[in-house]
Each structure stands twice: as C-alpha cells, then as structure tokens.
Amino acid sequence: MLDLKVTMFKYDASSRCLKLFYSDGSGAIFKSVPEFVHRNLLRCEDKAAFVQKYLEYDLHFTKITLMSAA
Predict the structure, then answer these.
(1) Which of 33, 34, 42, 52 is 20 to 30 A (C-alpha) from 59?
(2) How far apart are CA 9 and CA 29, in angstroms?
C-alpha cells in the first residue's frame, strides 16, 4: 500500500476551498470547508490521516479529485 503524504495545501477563507496536493502527484479540492477545520489541519502532524478521517467521508464537503499527469 502506498503511504500518501500531503506535500502542500492552501485554504481560501472567502471561498471556503481547501486545495491539497499529495506525494504521488495527485490532488483534491474540498469545497465548503469551515475555517476551524483548516486550523485543525494546521495543528495535526499526519495531514493525510486527518484528511481521510475528517474530510473524505463527510457528506458536507464536496470533493474534486485532481489526477497526476504521470
């Protein structure tokens, strides 16, 4: 199993969009993310585990997956 790491992320408070990029070159955009979720992401050590636990399976967030070109 590939151990993905979040290599970069950016949060836009006005649009409430969280953009994430992973070590395999893929990425994701989550819409309707409250600022407190972003603040909690900043504090955690394993960001990929945080995303999987709190964002990927929450029906309140819209996820757009970005695939790598490779």
Answers:
(1) 42
(2) 10
